[in-house]
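yo, ABC transporter permease is done. seq:
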Amino acid sequence: MFRLALTTLRHRTAAFLAIFVALLLGSALLAAAGGLLETGLRLNAPPQRLAAVPLLVSGDPAYHPPNGSGSAAFPERHRVDADLVNKLASTPGVANAIADRTFPAVVTQTGGPATGSGRTAGAPTGTGATAGAAAGEVLIGHGWASAQLTPYRLTIGRAPKAGQVVLDQRLAGSAKPGDQISVTVRGTPQQYTVAGIAVAERAVDVPAVFFADSEAERLVPAPDAIGVFPADGTSTRELAKTLALPAGVKAYAGDDRGVAEYRGIATSLPLIIMSGVFGGMVAVVMALVVSATIGLSVRQRRRELALLRASGATPRQVAKMVIAETLTVGILGLVLGLLCGPFAGDWIFGLLTGGGIVPAQLRFDQGILPFVGAALLTFVVLRVTVGIAAGRAAQIRPIQALAEAAVPAVALSRVRILIGLIFAGVTVSIAVSTLFMSPTNAAAIGGPAGLTGSIAVAILAPMVIQRALVPRLTTMLEKRGTSGVLAVINLRVRAVQFAAILIPITIATTIALGNIYAQTTQQKAAVEAATDSLAADVVITSSTGGIPTSLTEHARTLPGVTAVSELVRSKGWIESPYDDSHTSDAWPLLGLSGPVYEGKVTKGSLDELRGSTIALPPGTAKKLKVDVGSELGVRLGDNALVTVKVVALAEGPSGYEPLLLPAELLAAHTTTGLPSMLLLKTSDEKAALKADLPGATAGGRELLGEGYDAGLGVDAYIAYLLAGIAVAYTAIASVNTIAAAVLDRRREFGLQRLTGSTRRQVSRMLMLEGLVIAGLGLVLGLIAAAFTVLPIAVASRGWPIPSGPPWILLAWVAVVLLLVLPTTAITGRIAMRPKPMDALASPVG
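structure:
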């Protein structure tokens, strides 16, 4: 039987090629998803600027809720107590402890002859670039003592004193000690004297500007991290275990030191969730596509299998032959897919780092386990699907199989119909429950509805195709002449074969439109919620790291300005009394200093929002059993636990209510320490827009949305990336399946041509069939996607109208038609290339 299986492979190239490609892509993408999972679990990021110090002590960058439910990255830099530096330095086994302080420093003007031409801050060391610092280039400021953590070596000049800086050689250009430069620190431009030029003795992506240690300590009292050098003979790992560190502070060694150096490497949860969603999506899509393709391949050979049974082959022998030939092709595709896995993983990870989803310094780890997992999962999918198809083909009686080879059966078993209806019911249940959820939960829970809907369509596809041929559609097709009549007949009697083409089109449509419109709807709702409750005619943003107090005071003097408010955005958690509605997902925190919030105040007054105070949504106050005058313990974005007094109950957009804090209080617990925007209410908007604002830009209300949109783009980018890859996979599978189905009909086309049909009439018949299946796949995909998108729209915006450009839908319709129709035309031409009599004598079709 195995020898017979190998012989069969030569005559079923198209069908087996479709199986081969589906498994190759599926196993490669599963290996890539496994690599993302391993990367998220390891979180290896070799340090650069802090690479010379064996041990780094810094605040835990991840927030861990008191109830132990998950974790979330702190939105701000979690710094450590300055007293810890001296404590660590006096610890037995420690040779030295050096504080590392990091803050944005923007070179706004270079003085003397050292103006240079400017260059990108992220260029690596050793490129030979010697241009000077570009005006407005965002750099990183540090205290000079931390230069030995890289280490940096002075090439000219000396260490900086108060009012002096040392420049990275890549920034110096022709600057020399004694030249004057203007550097904006904490939003305020200041003049500094160049004390020296230094070069990093290892590759460091971001150039640095070094200040006197006393000035760095004044700007940033609490260190970002502390570099610990063990004494001679002391093990770094052992020292890390013996250090007495306060709660929330950790010691990092080896590649783990990157967690202390780079922001964004805080918790493995995002990558784990992303890899899980991606891998699950690929596994389900692969299972559906492979099962449909294998089913099509086996069904196309019912005549051969019937003849084998009639000639004495047992059901077991037939099943073994089908399994052997399919496994031969499938395992070959699996092996080649695993070989492509590293390239797929590197490519996807490159897209994530390039899009800012994960830090570029994070190392992509893809060991043996992702490939083992991908191989096992792919083989299980292959073995189960081919086992079902082979069992169904082998158990049928020979005479019945010969009859079905002539007119394939369309009837579905009761078990299959029941399973399909169960998935349809699950889809409806998920969609209905999503309607009553918060926007955050709706996005997490409502997503699988489209996938379960696609599974229901895949199971019931033959029945759906037959039921879709309503009298009106049948009449329209039959009006196209003989080609239309034949198309209707083929669609009815070949419903099972056409189902293999319908399934990937439906899945791709559901994934593409469901993911894209769900994201655009959520993004639109979140931006509207964040901006509609703020009154501002003019918005001022800073290009130098934040809004200094001097700029706020200057804005108050502008003509026609009636109110000014600083705006600070961050995230945090209510811990006392404990709020279990926001655990790993934080409360949005809004810092204000003026009367610009337009949400309804039900009790108290926002005029009292100063000092250590807070305004809560009324529903939250009721749940926590607090009122105006009560005190709360709020964990801010830098891990500081502050006690605040409730001064008002203020409503916000449903599902997006923020906690309101004084801007001064919240800004002090952000990474920059400054507000990010100024909101102006003015009677003379044009005058405010034309005002001279050094280091800042004035614009309309659209800047509010642009500033907030950056945070939402991460989730959207991930969804688009995963959808794009899954759609590409199903698109390729669709092309393969269409080609296999059309090329298998050589005998049919030859018989039609012998009975009087021309090539053109046969081609028209194929195109009509393709249009019906493509249109049906689009409609079913839209319906399945609607079970995801519309409930999310209701939960996010209050009405079932999604947001998003309509051209995306039109573009996807064009993509599907460009996949189906040209593939059908080309393979139809190939199938009709032999003479009719030769086609009838063909061993396949």
